[in-house]
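Request: Give me one sample?
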Amino acid sequence: MPTEAIDPAGISWQRVSPKYVTVRLVEWAAGNLLAVIVLSLPLVLVLLGWWRWPPLWLAILVPAAALVLAAWRLVLIPRQVRAIGYAERDDDLLIRRGIFFQRTLAVPYGRMQYVDIGVGPVERGLGLCTLKLHTASPGTNATIPGLPAGEGARLREQLAARGEARLAGL
């Protein structure tokens, strides 16, 4: 159910690359594999008879709960990636993300101090990048992950040119 505050009328959202799902899945796998291994250690030690506490039911419950939570996050990843979008307007850039807790961020071109592109190893292998917008406000978390490298470079140059043309508040 879109609302006017989150999804303004007349905005054509550009979506990030579907390849970004792979990046998120690799991050998910690395983080969850480590968590499940650590949370399963008490279970292994109880089964080997080296520990008497925690009780077996608790030693099973903790890693099982971690696996259920990991599976839930796995199901959400493709939808979360589809929810990321951006739109270039005349005076600002809109960035949208979130499924349950939606957020739309408007960054005026004149407030941008610099535009940065970052690439991790998985992103590099897939030809993707993450665009970061830096403003004078330290609380601004304006990032657009999962952009194709060519689109990221184009957007960086476009935003830098628009920001320089406006120079508001600098």
